Amino acid sequence: MGPRPEEGSLATAPPAARIGVIADTHGYLHPAIPELFAGVDHIIHAGDIVDPAILATLREVATVTAVAGNIDDGDLAETLPREVLGEAAGIRFAVGHKRKRLLKMLSPGRLLSEDDRPPTLVVFGHEHVPSASWVGGVLYLDPGTATAPDEEDDAATVAIVTVTAAGLSVTFVPLPRSGFTVRADFQDELRARGQLTLV
Predict the structure, then answer these.
(1) Residue ranges of domains in the chain
(2) CA 153/CA 146 separation, integer angstroms
(3) Could you give the CA distance from residue 41 to residue 20 in angstroms, rounded to a whole number?
(4) Which residue has the higher pLDDT, 93 or 113?
């Protein structure tokens, strides 16, 4: 039997860090999200924000990295990047709204320089389908849509990535659809495109 550790000297693993991941809010922040993300170390928003007040609310919860999506305009389109690299909770991540465009930008010499450390987490949105897959030690994550405005969309979801010494894990959190509202001017745009279904 080995020596007993002295009282109070037990080694403990560092606490897990958590990253809240959200996309496609379309002008509406579900009231459950600030509570769901309470205590996260960082929040990543993968675009189609529509209302800058959403980012202001999320920044009250944690530091936010956000990108502009294809329907973001005005200040959001002018001030947010389309793709960006970042670091949070000891990991490197890349985020962009559209998967295909982001993957092209991750080729050396574009978003990444030749000597850049590649990301461990790649986040995108746009598809309104929550998904997570591992390819070559990289987690590719779509948190799904936080509003589910299209009739064929799955339920609204966000994701929480947990970072431990053992690696990354992801949990998808469904959001209730009842009480769902979209900013009035965006409702008109969705109706014009035949994409507004509220239940």
Answers:
(1) 17-192
(2) 11
(3) 8
(4) 93
Classify residue 135 by its DSSP letter.
E
Predicted confidence (pLDDT) per residue in 35-72, tens digit: 999 999 999 999 999 999 999 999 999 999 999 999 99
| Contact of 159 with 170, CB cutoff 8 Å | yes
**Encoding tokens for residue 108?**
């050396």
pLDDT at 38: 96
E-strand ranges in the chain read 17-22, 42-45, 64-66, 83-88, 91-96, 121-123, 131-135, 138-142, 157-164, 167-174
Over residues 161-172, the pLDDT tens digits come to: 999 999 999 999
CATH of the domain spanning 17-192? 3.60.21.10
What is the pTM for the complete model shown?
0.82
Give CA–CA dist 90/121, Å, rounded. Answer: 11
Structure tokens that stand for 98 in this block:
């559209």
